[in-house]
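User: For my dataset I need records formatted as: sequence, then structure tokens, nothing else. Please produce one.
Assistant:
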Amino acid sequence: MTGMSAKNFVALIAGLVALCNDRLDRQPSNRALAKAATVWPTIGDWLRGEQFPQWIDPLLKLVRAVRAHAAQGGLPPLAHLADEQRWRRRCQDEARRHIEETRTMVQAEQGRAVTRTNGSRFAEYVAGFTRIHDDGVADG
């Protein structure tokens, strides 16, 4: 999974926000979008990029609500809003990226925990090895 897929997801969300802000006069409101998506209160967090949607269906409901509002406002169909498979793919790619990032952080913490637990024994081993290497014979 490349960073490009994550950027594509972020770009889709940014495009949705720009559409609402620039061409739809800041409509529909976050409250209306939350009602359409049946998710409270995370819509604003999604749109600001502060939280990643846990499920695709509420996100697609949000996209449909914006698409319907755009159509009511007389805007022509917009490709990035019409292609729900594109939204699904980008969301799945971003979810995979989050999973990999979490996995990496967990593995790093496990490594640090092992080092903390075994650090003194390892330091003793290295010190003993160094003494053997330096003196040519083991102490004791």
